[in-house]
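Need residues for this backbone.
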């Protein structure tokens, strides 16, 4: 044992020890006490089985009344003081390595819970940004040198699976900054998950079924990704003791941006990713959507072609861009994942439209009889993007979506069961394939028709 009196050792469930093991343990402990008392040891035993435990009986003179449990807020402060790696903290500065992956954490905590109330809220993207930051800091070419992901989808065997994965991959981290250990918790909680997380985050040791022990390095950074809505109250209380990073749904972010002109203080929250919203993909889609919303001559997209001017996006523009995406999506409460699919699909179609020869040839610059053709194409592509990225009428929990207003969408629908008008740009760059679209011979009307022949765009 360590000679430091500040070290605390704990042995829980001593009533489960076999008689022979308990006898030998008591004898060894008494011999050790004769040599030194420079340690603190706590033995935990169930009161119902205290009389049947040899160790509890042999050490009864050391029995103490259990202390009153401290409030969660004080327990959270204590845990943070032990997991933080702040250099100027006298309590833990002696444990801080010269270089550690923990430096990428805003609070220098070696544990971070990345959570959201719903799936598809940007948790994986938040973790990815942390990995990118660590790669840049440690100057490594690929993330396998500083990153290891452990999916937790069957919590009964999560400790064995996690220990096996981390032991096997221990030798592939040449970075002097250590490793970001990402635990992707996809399973609903059960009795085995809390003990596993306690061993991992508090004791810093986990064991596989063969008895091999994985020890946490002071350079390691633990990131737990979890959706809170499917977890038990007991697990939620345990996770609340650790520093968290909240990821909000798009509609929640949009409401926050309308009411505030600054980021939230006092907690870590992902509102909208700076890199994503400043990318050409997001900017191109927003540019076309904003042109369609404009009044007057600018609504005609026949002569328009996107040109990205700057990457910086102001706070107000973030709100406007997000409101536009939500407005044109098929329902008012999309996830970031659904919005991403909508934007990516529409961006690819718009990019193809910009580079195809026929969109130039049918421009009013060469043929005035095709006035509004490109505007018609963009409107069709928006409709296609909705159809291809809209989930089924009922979500995973069986709830239905209420009808909404906005841009011709009256309700969310199962597009797989209906015929829809589509436009596909062929690989030759000279032609298009139409489905469910009728062009009159005099080119006075471009019509999208449903299965009942109702004109949707004319």
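Answer:
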């Amino acid at each position: 044992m360590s000679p430091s009196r500040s070290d605390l050792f704990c042995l829980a469930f001593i009533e489960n020890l076999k008689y022979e093991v308990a006898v030998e343990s008591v004898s060894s402990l008494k011999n050790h006490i004769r040599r030194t008392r420079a340690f603190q040891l706590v033995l935990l035993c169930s009161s119902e089985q205290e009389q049947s435990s040899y160790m509890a009986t042999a050490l009864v003179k050391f029995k103490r009344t259990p202390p009153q449990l401290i409030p969660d807020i004080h327990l959270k402060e204590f845990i943070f003081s032990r997991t933080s790696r702040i250099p100027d903290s006298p309590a833990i500065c002696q444990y801080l390595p010269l270089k550690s992956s923990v430096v990428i954490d805003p609070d220098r905590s070696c544990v971070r819970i990345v959570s959201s109330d719903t799936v598809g809220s940007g948790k994986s993207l938040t973790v990815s940004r942390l990995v990118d930051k660590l790669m840049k800091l440690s100057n490594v070419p690929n993330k396998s040198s500083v990153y290891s992901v452990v999916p937790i989808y069957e919590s009964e065997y999560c400790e064995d699976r996690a220990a096996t994965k981390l032991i096997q991959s221990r030798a592939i981290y040449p970075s002097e900054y250590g490793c970001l250990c990402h635990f992707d918790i996809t399973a609903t909680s059960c009795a085995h998950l809390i003990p596993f997380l306690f061993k991992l985050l508090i004791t810093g040791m986990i064991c596989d079924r063969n008895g091999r022990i994985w020890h946490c390095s002071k350079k390691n950074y633990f990131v737990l990704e979890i959706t809170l809505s499917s977890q038990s109250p007991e697990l939620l209380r345990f996770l609340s003791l650790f520093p968290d990073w909240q990821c909000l749904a798009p509609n929640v972010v949009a409401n926050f941006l309308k009411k505030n002109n600054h980021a939230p203080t006092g907690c870590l929250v992902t509102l909208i990713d700076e890199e994503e919203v400043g990318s050409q993909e997001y900017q191109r889609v927003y540019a076309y959507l904003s042109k369609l919303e404009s009044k007057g001559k600018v609504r005609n997209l026949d002569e328009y072609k996107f040109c990205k001017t700057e990457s910086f996006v102001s706070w107000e523009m973030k709100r406007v861009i997000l409101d536009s995406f939500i407005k044109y999506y098929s329902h008012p409460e999309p996830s970031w994942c659904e919005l991403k699919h909508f934007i990516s699909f529409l961006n690819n179609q718009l990019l193809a439209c910009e580079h195809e020869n026929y969109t130039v040839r049918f421009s009013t610059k060469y043929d005035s009889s095709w006035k509004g053709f490109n505007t018609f194409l963009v409107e069709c592509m928006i409709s296609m993007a909705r159809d291809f990225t809209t989930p089924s009428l009922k979500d995973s929990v069986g709830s239905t979506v209420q009808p909404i207003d906005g841009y011709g969408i009256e309700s969310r629908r199962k597009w797989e069961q209906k015929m829809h008008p589509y436009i596909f740009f062929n690989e030759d760059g000279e032609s298009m394939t139409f489905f469910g679209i009728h062009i009159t011979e005099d080119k006075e009307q471009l019509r999208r028709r449903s299965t009942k022949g109702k004109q949707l765009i004319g």
